[in-house]
Structures are given as C-alpha cells and as structure tokens.
Design brief:
alpha/beta; Oxidized Rhodanese, domain 1; 5-stranded parallel beta sheet; 5 helices; 5 strands; about 20% strand
Length: about 120
Amino acid sequence: MKKVLFSLLFLNSFFAFAQHIDREISTSVAKIHSRSLLIDVRTPAEFKEGHLPHAINIDWLSADFNKAFDSISKRKKIYVYCRSGKRSEMAASRLDSLGFKRVVNLKGGYKAYEKMQ
C-alpha cells in the first residue's frame, strides 16, 4: 500500500512541474496570436533598437522581473525571446518555476528574426 501511494505521489509531482518548450523563432512568429503574450526580455535600449511586432519589454536583468508577471494568469501562453536565445532560455525556466504552464522560448532570438526579414 505504501509503495502504491508513494508511486502515485511521485507521478503526480512529476507531471505538476511545467516545462517550457523551445521553438525556432523563424517558424513560430507567424503562429503567435493575440491571446498570447510576446515578451522581449532584452534591455530597454535593445528593445528600442528593434523588436518583434506586439512585443512587450520585460528586462530579464531587472530586479522586478518576477514581479512584472504577478498579474498575468499562469495559464496564459507566453512566448519569450532575447537577442540570441540565452537570456530567454533562463527567463523561460524562471517562468516555469513561477508556475506558468504554457511558456515557449523562441530560439535564435531577435538575430534570427532579423535574418528572416
């Protein structure tokens, strides 16, 4: 009985943790719809130099990064990107740890997006 209970608890905790998805930015940009959030995690200066249409800037390096997501539903689909994909990978992992269930890291970042243009 203890083994069965332990197994059920283990499986439940395994599936309770969300894991973000990594997708190439080149194939994902057209699929982002208005009900999702598109978050640029670069600095405000980088954001001003250019960004994806409809993106919101929430700086990964900001002390208020976590707080910026307080009012966002944990079930909202969130796409994150940065310049090349490193910061957005860390941001996506952080959002996972904060309990967000539908996080997509856009690999390749803004550099890959610019190459598509």
